[in-house]
Amino acid sequence: MGLYSHRGRNQQSHHNPVFGVRCRHWLSVTLFSCLLWGCSAAPTGMLPDAILDITPVKSESQAKYIQLSDEKNPTDQRREAADYLLALGSTESISLLNKSIVSNSDPQATDAVLQAIILSPSTPPTSLYDSLRGLLLRAEGNLRFRAAEAISRYNNDDAIRTNIIRLANNDKSQIEHRQAAILVLSRMHSRIAAQALINLTAPEQPDAIRADTYVALALLAGDNTRGQDRAKWLSWWELARTWSKDRWYASLINNTTRQNARQRLELEETTQYLFALGRSSYRNSSESDRPKILAYMLTHLRPVRQLAMELVLERILDRQPFDENLLTALRDRLTDSNANIRQLAALRLNDLLDQPAAKMIANRLQNKQEISQSVINADLLLLTNMPQANAVETALNLLENPALQHTAAGMLAAASEHSLLSETQAAQAAVYVRQMFKHPNGISPQSIRLLGKVGRDNDWNTIAELIDHEDPALRQAAAQAWADSDRSLKILADRVSDLIIQPIVIGAATQRGNDPFTLFELAKYPPEQQQNREAWGRALSAMAGRVSPDTVLTITEGILNIEHVNPEAAVLAESMITASLEAHQQHDQFKSEMMLLRLDRAEIWLKASNVAGAIGDYQYINQNISDLLMPHRSRFYRGFIKTQLQRDAIESAFDIARDLFKLIKLRGIAPTDDPIVNLFTTQAKYYIDAQRYEEAQLILDKLRDLLGDQISPDAALKLNQLDNQLSSP
To answer: Among residues 250, 270, 290, which one ends one of the domains?
Structure first.
């Protein structure tokens, strides 16, 4: 199914196989010579597509001529312009081609025209011949070879062929001109040309003419085994001249095929070597020169641009900077004549999150200037990361394209997140995506995500079912769509043990989790990986500030009541308690729960030797002791006493102990049997060992005063032992 209506035409290429291999070999060597030693010029952008798509023939010819003549354009884009002008065949377009051939100022434009003629499926207009002949006689090097190949396309034109043969035989002409004519004959591959070349091997001909003629015969016949042996060539000709036309061309094809195979292998090896050399040249250059080299390579021949794209990716992976000059060169490849280059450009600019590229791509899609599905797919991927409003309509239409609908759905979902869809567009997207869901191949992570953005209440039943899908990717997408909505997280929390869904629940709980069920379920399943465990802890703490304190109290006490609580769990409990206290400090209805949370936190801090933190909570509770339920006060006093002793606040510790003993007596328990007595004697022993005798004596005196005549025999024995240690330190 066609994507867009598109002006332009693709030409099939028919050319001489011998020349093709020699030509490609020459191109590879030349382009890498430029690449490695001629990278001083910086690239600039191409002409925009708008210039290239104008309906009137005259204007189109002029636009293509501008594209052909612009030295900033890559070679194959200039070739494309020459192809178009030649195929157009109008008087004006041929005149413009003649202008490029005659001009000496831009060899690359001339070369582009010659290649267009060489590869044209039909014989070129005879109105180009005079210009081509003039170029043949004045050009040097590779341009002369191209001109000869172009003129050889007139092989079936008797007048032109005769003109070339006369020039080759004219002993009054310059040797160089005769050699140029021989070059043309070598590429005509006809028996008339072969007869003319055989005649030029005569002994009376100049040595230079004869030498070139033998080379020409080898090229024409596709066989270089006879060298400069005239007898062998005459013998070959005596036989070949009698062949039928079919056998003549069969012989040429067989010979040139074998020769092509050898040359193709050599070309592949040479190309691989030169590409390795190109990579090495880039990697061995200074960091300051590398962006310039890459920018230059991006405007060169297609194989070089392909290599440049490889090096661009390498640069991205190495986290190297991209200056504006290099970014501009990369953006220009978005309109490259080669679809693979356009695709790679979009992918790399996506990696770089380049906003100008997003605008360019959106404009191209809006104007239907792209026809390659692989390129459109890459374009949509870029626009998923950098959505543009003017690409929305195109993406909506692409939802009907099976090859692109999923990427288009992903782009539309991203556009919806950025509020770039109108209500009408969102409704259209919903209709399209529901149609997609009617087919198994229409369900994808992207289409699920889009349905979550534009669907209605009944569409969430579909998404809910997909949360249990056997395909992990679809299950993950459905869970994420649910998490990104404002719907209850309970359906996800109920599946938190699923390792695919668990990270999604953690993320959603951090952002908006506010129900006890989700918090309880999440707390049951701590992740195994440390990184995920840290995120899990942050989620629990975030939710602790949104649920009621009694919920937090239940969970944290469950954590703290575990035997041998590890420090990590204690820190998590402290974080959750702190979040809850900060969120509900003004809520009077939770006073008792808040006091218990403070008591838990004080004990956590005390175990962690954070005496300053613990004393703050204990003092707060002491000031609001009426809010602490009676069953918890004994626990409070014991922790408070321990904290005061760690602060060396002995007097305060015994003041609190008196309150504790009052509470104990109310329960009918003898204070002398309370474990707090051991706490004081242990602290006194600590002071004696530390040679802090005054503090030790103060504790013993205060303890005797506190216990009075109710002291137990065991307690009295301990006190006497400590007295003896003090008397004989």
So the answer is: 270
The pLDDT of residue 39 = 36
Query: Tokens 């998590």 identify what position?
Result: 572
- What is the token pair recorded at 38? 């001629």
579 and 541 in contact (C-beta within 8 Å)?
yes
Domain that holds residue 57: 47-154
Average pLDDT of span 474-499: 96
Measured CA to CA in angstroms, residue 562 lies from 540, 569, 573 at distances of 18, 10, 12
Per-residue pLDDT tens over the stretch 661-688: 888 887 777 667 778 888 999 999 999 9
Whether residues 64 and 148 share a domain: the answer is yes
Q: Distance between CA 22 and CA 256 in Å, rounded?
A: 12
State what percent of residues in the chain have pLDDT above 70. 88
Q: How many domains does the chain have?
A: 2
Spell out the long-range contacts of 558-567 with Cβ–Cβ below 8 A and sequence spacing 24 or more. Answer: 558/523, 559/523, 560/600, 560/603, 560/604, 567/608
Based on the domain organization, do 130 and 66 belong to the same domain?
yes
Do 122 and 201 share a domain, yes or no? no
Q: In this structure, are 51 and 94 located in the same domain?
A: yes
Distances (CA, A) of 649 to 536, 646, 716: 39, 8, 24
Distances (CA, A) of 285 to 234, 288, 292, 294: 56, 8, 10, 11
Residue 597 in contact with residue 556, Cβ under 8 Å? yes
Q: In this structure, are 187 and 244 located in the same domain?
A: yes
- Note whether 105 and 192 are same-domain residues: no
Buried b (16+ CB within 10 A) or exposed e, 70-92: beebbbbbbbbbbbbbbbbeeee
| Residue 311 lies inside a defined structural domain of this protein | no
**Which pair of tokens denotes residue 305?**
């641009």
282 found inside a domain: no
Say what the alpha-carbon torsion angle 267, 268, 274, 275 is, to the nearest 10 degrees.
150
Distance between CA atoms of residues 68 and 74, nearest Å: 10
Name the one residue in this structure whose structure tokens are 């869970």.
479
332: left (phi over 0), alpha (psi -120 to 50) or beta: alpha
Q: Are residues 147 and 186 in the same domain?
A: no
Q: Per the domain annotation, does 52 fall within a domain? A: yes
State the amino acid at position 64 in one-letter form: K
- Where among 270, 298, 313 does a domain terminate? 270
- The H or E element that residue 208 is part of is helix 207-221
Q: Which amino acid is at 150?
A: A
Alpha carbons 626 and 167: distance in angstroms, whole number: 121
Q: What is the pLDDT of residues 500-531, one digit of tens each?
A: 999 999 999 999 999 999 999 999 999 988 88
Tokens of 622: 């002491």
Find tokens 């050599």 and name the residue. 266
* 128: in domain: yes
Q: Angle CA(83)–CA(89)–CA(90) in degrees, nearest 5?
A: 130
Please report the sign of the dihedral spanned by the C-alpha atoms of residue 652, residue 653, residue 654, residue 659: positive
Which residue reads 């602060």 in tokens? Answer: 647
Compute the C-alpha angle 486/491/493, nearest 5°.
Answer: 100
Q: What radius of gyration, in Å, describes the C-alpha atoms of the chain?
A: 44
**Cβ 378 vs Cβ 346: under 8 Å:** yes
Q: How confident is the model at residue 588 (pLDDT cuts 50, 70, 90)?
A: confident
- pLDDT (average), residues 537-542: 96
Q: Which two tokens stand for residue 459?
A: 């569409």
**197 and 113 in a common domain:** no
Amino acid found at 117: I
Helix, strand and coil percent figures for the chain, each rounded to 5: 75, 0, 25
Residues in the chain, overall count: 729
Write the secondary structure of 436-501 as one string of H (helix), E (strand) and C (coil): HCCCHHHCCHHHHHHHHHHCCCCHHHHHHHHCCCCCHHHHHHHHHHHHHCCCCCHHHHCCCCCCCC
Which pLDDT does position 386 carry in this prediction? 98
Cα separation, 260 vs 214, in Å, equals: 19
- Encoded amino acid at 364, one letter: R
Average pLDDT over residues 613-633: 92
